[in-house]
Design goal:
This protein is mainly β. The protein contains no helices and ten strands.
Length: 113
């Protein structure tokens, strides 16, 4: 099982980024997927979840209305569109499959002017 996150970077407050997570080693279309983040000195936080067919999504209150999780089962990829970014969104972002204990290397998102 492998997750490869990408798309992070440095962005100004109010900007946008789109993260991608390419998954392999399991039947992607059968699993719900999640995005988590971990800021320096803080615990890892669940940000968003999407069901296996993409029909249901859930967001943490801190990102609701600004972030959008989606997936492409044909490409074994889950996305996180992040809009109206704030400095407090600065963190390393990780994707995981629901029920699995595997983690990728994450992608760094830094929101700063």
């Amino acid at each position: 099982v492998q997750f490869v996150e990408s798309g992070g970077g440095l962005v100004q407050p109010g900007g946008s980024l789109r993260l991608s997570c390419a998954a392999s080693g399991f039947t992607f279309s059968r699993y719900g997927m999640r995005w988590h983040r971990q800021a320096p000195g803080k615990e890892r936080e669940l940000v968003a979840t999407i069901t296996s067919n993409g029909g249901i999504t859930w967001y943490a209150d801190s990102v609701k209305g600004r972030f959008l999780i989606s997936r492409d089962n044909a490409k074994n990829t889950v996305y996180l569109q992040m809009n109206s970014l704030k400095p407090e969104d600065t963190a390393v972002y990780y994707c995981t499959a629901v029920g699995m204990g595997y983690w990728g290397q994450g992608t760094q998102v830094t929101v700063s002017s």
